[in-house]
Design a protein that fits this description.
The protein is built from four helices and nine strands, in the order E-H-E-H-E-E-E-E-E-H-E-E-H. It has about 160 residues and is of the alpha+beta class. It has one domain: Small protein B (Small Protein B, Chain: A, Beta Barrel), CATH 2.40.280.10. It has a seven-stranded antiparallel β-sheet with strand order 1-8-9-2-7-5-4.
């Protein structure tokens, strides 16, 4: 890599989460990956769309996150949909467990990115939106877009 060239920052987001859920408290968790999985994620070949998190035995796991097999990985590639362990502080796990026991809360992934070479996953406690909430959000977004267009049309240069 050239001296003046910055390394690319890979960010994989779950855009659907913002549409389907009211996002509450967020946490940054480390994620346990194998070598070929890290290489595949660095290429941007992962998906959080169908993923959710689960607490089992005092540990947090992400279920349903798809990481495509690394092309040069041959026999070292693992199952693309295998459950992966998340690394959080014990007190954070306890706080998450208490919230999940309340009705309607779930733990969802929002973003997968790298910090100083380590894969991190931003997860959030979220409550599912009702259909009318989604419609209201769409109407608000459309109204904001119309307001901006009207402002841009009025500007005199």
């Amino acid at each position: 890599m050239a001296k003046n060239q910055k390394p690319q920052s890979v960010t994989i987001t779950n855009r659907r989460a913002w549409h389907d859920y009211h996002i509450g408290e967020t946490f940054e968790a480390g994620i346990v990956l194998s070598g070929t999985e890290v290489k595949s994620v660095r290429q941007g070949r992962a998906s959080l769309q169908e993923a959710y998190c689960k607490v089992e035995g005092g540990e947090v796991f992400i279920i349903g996150m798809h990481i495509s097999p690394y092309e040069q990985g041959n026999r070292y590639n693992l199952d693309p949909l295998r459950p992966r362990k998340l690394l959080l502080h014990r007190e954070e796990i306890r706080r998450i467990e208490r919230q999940l026991q309340q009705k309607g809360y779930t733990l969802i992934p929002l973003k997968l990115y790298f910090v100083r070479g380590y894969a991190k996953l931003q997860i959030a406690l979220a409550r599912g939106k009702k259909l009318y909430d989604k419609r209201e959000a769409i109407a608000r977004r459309d109204a904001e877009l119309e307001r901006r267009r009207a402002e841009a049309g009025r500007l005199d240069y």
